[in-house]
Amino acid sequence: MIRERHLLGPGPSNPYPEATSALAQPLLGHLDPEFLRIMDDTCEMLRTVWGTTNSRTLPLSATGSAGMEAAFVNTVHPGDVVVVAVNGLFGQRMTDVAARCGAEVVAVEHEWGHPVDVDRVLAAHPAPAIVAAVHAETSTGVRSDVAALGAALRAQGSEALLLVDAVTSIGGIEVRADDWGVDVAYAGTQKCLGVAPGLAPFTIGERAFERRVEEPRSWYLDLGMLGGYVGEAGVQGGQRTYHHTAPTAMVASLHAGLARVLDEGLDAVWARHRAAGEALQAGLQDMGLELFAAEGSRLPQLTTVKVPDGVDPAAVRRELLERHGIEIGAGAGAYAASVWRIGLMGRNARPDTVVLVLAALREVLGRG
Ligand SMILES: *Cc1c(COP(=O)(O)O)cnc(C)c1O
């Protein structure tokens, strides 16, 4: 038996109990009418969580990184200029993925720990095909203002598609894809949605779909072919066609997790994440620790904290895991040894979890 962990790193988080129970239900075939109903319902709930009416909203059968691949491989035509706002590891990864799809990448580098500077992104190129940014940079704990980026692109009369990584944001902080002018976005299940890793909620609007690559290099992630898989209206009369075997157990689990989130209400879920994150950040500072992410742009669901001088960061993480069953994350990239990452995502965004992790850290650091 594996002892239960408190998963308080950058993901996966502990799933909502409803999402875990759903995994134990009888397995359905991927064309079973009961499963198709669950899939339709899941896509509908995803629209609510994304804040979109996009008909092409579905869970891709792979993790968040496949969402990133799908976003670029379906929208980048060879030679397209893609402006990527880079303020952490996942922005960096976007530049790699876009380049592999044949983009002429214009990376707008930011200091890690700071949000995306909308003016610099807009000034990077006069007419990009795509502008891409990470909403919640899990590597640094920073939130960027996607609403402002979308508004600025519109104000400029830009034709660029806005492509957004919302892996760590959905289910944790406000996301309003349509209001913000987001054309393509992807997420993951194992962060704030509180479901095990394995699916990538994805949404693409009409304008982006019309401009898509007809025969993308990826067969598996070809959105044109995936239409039939989710019974998209108008595609073969809404009939389901076999494309790949839907991971039916994972979709049932996502269905249950989304129902749990929407039952609580998105506003309440966001407020719960905000309260937990603020309490954690205040508690860490009370302990004399310093936060890494710039004030005013700190994510509540992922807190980055500087490792104090003279402390072995890996030893602290090991102690937390061995003695308290608590997993926290190391820093990312150049900050691997100087920053810890503490996630309060989904089910873990609760006052008792805050108290638990603060007490354990205080004990392990000998500060209490
Ligand atoms: C976790 C994460 C990803 C990658 O998702 P995987 O599920 O690990 O493939 C991409 N972007 C961000 C912001 C993430 O936090």
From TrEMBL:
- Residue ranges for the region (Disordered) are 1-20
**Entry keywords, A to Z:** Aminotransferase, Pyridoxal phosphate, Transferase
The Aminotransferase class V domain sits at: 29-333
Q: What Pfam family is a match, any one? A: Aminotran_5
Q: Which PROSITE patterns match?
A: AA_TRANSFER_CLASS_5
Superkingdom of the source species: Bacteria
Necessary cofactors? pyridoxal 5'-phosphate
Q: Which InterPro entries match?
A: Aminotrans_V_dom, Aminotrans_V_PyrdxlP_BS, PyrdxlP-dep_Trfase, PyrdxlP-dep_Trfase_major, PyrdxlP-dep_Trfase_small, SP_NH2Trfase/AEP_transaminase
| Family from the record | Belongs to the class-V pyridoxal-phosphate-dependent aminotransferase family.
UniProt name for this protein: Alanine--glyoxylate aminotransferase family protein
